[in-house]
Design goal:
Layout: E1 3-15, H1 22-26, E2 31-44, E3 49-53, H2 60-68, E4 75-80, H3 89-95, E5 96-100, H4 112-122, H5 127-141, H6 156-168, E6 174-178, H7 186-203, E7 206-210, H8 214-220, E8 223-228, E9 231-236, H9 238-245, E10 248-256, E11 266-272, E12 275-281, H10 287-297, E13 299-306, H11 310-318, H12 327-335
Parallel strand pairs: 3-7, 3-8, 5-6, 6-7
Antiparallel strand pairs: 1-2, 1-4, 8-9, 10-12, 10-13, 11-12
Helix pairs in contact: 5-6, 9-11
The protein binds adenosine-5'-triphosphate and magnesium ion.
Length: 338
């Protein structure tokens, strides 16, 4: 059950920048092609959980929609277990489950039980399998406590659990999750994460998920693919991401001084009382050098080095600094991708 994505793109015709004169906007030239997904390639192997990450508007949901067959690619190919999603949607829907955290796929007015029955019918799920699945969902998602409630009356967490159950009734081998924990409280998030881990471990379900939640990434993702402005800027495991992107470290120094602090080859990023946060590039300098330079001028009382947190690394990747570089430079300087 392999997912192969080859030079995939999605273009939209969008209106040109509104600052242009109205006569231009009214003419055909007022439109331009926006490359929302721009020539991306990646594979996902059976049983993997891959985090598909990127800032708002990067093209994540658009990619997921193409993978599920909802959207037709402008260029390139997708093969999911040999099936081209948009060309064979019926066959494809049997092998995949989909959860969009932003909106429920269940029938709004109907009790959860009715939605499940409809899906059983649509997917031709056997009575035995239906019962088996309902038992499982009852155990691990506690679906029983709201099975007769109309979907519109469910809490966000209950709705998400119902959506997960619905997407797995037909026992798909692949699960696409677009922000599956959005808006949930800490406990509900934890529950969903555990559920994803369980179905991945026990049923070997392959999972691709988009998320803005670092907790999801740390708990779930064997591998991350990061996309920015439609292009893949990283594809690899978390440890590797730390070492590739985490070239910036922070040194927290306790300094007794009235004067502003200056450090060579490093940047002061925060000052709080006598504590100074100094960010440095570990390819350029190191804590020993910084401290020995500081003690020449200031009275240094204490210092610690902060290990790069995944959250900080992702912030750094998302903050867009790299976008001023050309693609080739990006690869050489920062990421060494693929
Ligand atoms: N039908 C459309 N027509 C024109 N532009 C579109 C269309 N659908 C999406 N876009 C644009 O494509 C870009 C990518 O959207 P997409 O929803 O894939 O982003 P995303 O990575 O999922 O972001 P988020 O993290 O906010 O969910 C956005 O700039 C969006 O405005
Ligand atoms: Mg999205």
């Amino acid at each position: 059950m392999k997912i192969e994505v080859n030079q995939l793109s999605k273009h939209y015709q969008v209106q040109r920048n509104k600052k242009e004169p109205l006569w231009k906007l009214l003419s055909r030239r007022g439109y331009e092609t926006k490359r929302v997904v721009d020539n991306i390639s990646f594979n996902v192997e059976e049983g993997e959980i891959v985090g598909y990450l990127g800032p708002n508007g990067a093209g994540k949901s658009t990619t997921i929609k193409m993978l599920t067959g909802i959207l037709v690619p402008s260029e390139g190919e997708i093969l999911v277990n040999g099936i081209v999603p948009h060309k064979n949607r019926k066959e494809h829907s049997k092998q995949i489950g989909v959860v969009f955290g932003q909106r429920s796929q269940l029938w709004w007015e109907l009790p959860v039980a009715d939605s499940f029955n409809l899906l059983k019918h649509m997917y031709k799920v056997s009575d035995i399998q239906f019962k088996k699945k309902l038992d499982l969902f009852h155990d691990v998602l506690d679906i029983g406590s709201f099975i007769n409630t109309p979907v519109r009356n469910l809490s966000l967490g209950q709705k998400m659990r119902a959506d997960f159950a619905a997407s797995l009734l037909h026992d798909p081998q692949i699960l696409f999750l677009d922000e599956p924990t959005i808006g949930l409280d800490v406990v509900a998030k934890e529950r969903i994460r555990e559920f994803i881990q369980t179905i991945n471990r026990e049923n070997k379900v392959t999972v691709i998920l988009t998320t803005h939640d670092v907790g999801d990434i740390e708990a779930l993702c064997h591998r991350t693919i990061i996309i920015d402005k439609g292009k893949i800027i990283y594809n690899g495991d978390l440890d590797n991401m730390k070492s590739q992107f985490g070239k910036y470290r922070t040194l927290i120094v306790d300094i007794k001084t009235e004067k502003p602090v200056y450090v060579e080859n490093a940047t002061i990023v925060k000052v709080e009382g006598s504590k100074v946060w100094i960010q440095f590039n570990r390819n350029v300098t190191n804590p020993t050098q910084i401290i020995s330079s500081l003690i020449k001028t200031y009275e240094v009382e204490d210092f610690t080095v902060e290990e790069p947190q995944i959250e900080n690394i992702i912030k750094h990747i998302y903050d867009g600094k790299h976008s001023t570089l050309s693609n080739n430079e990006r690869v050489d300087l920062d990421y060494g991708i693929n």
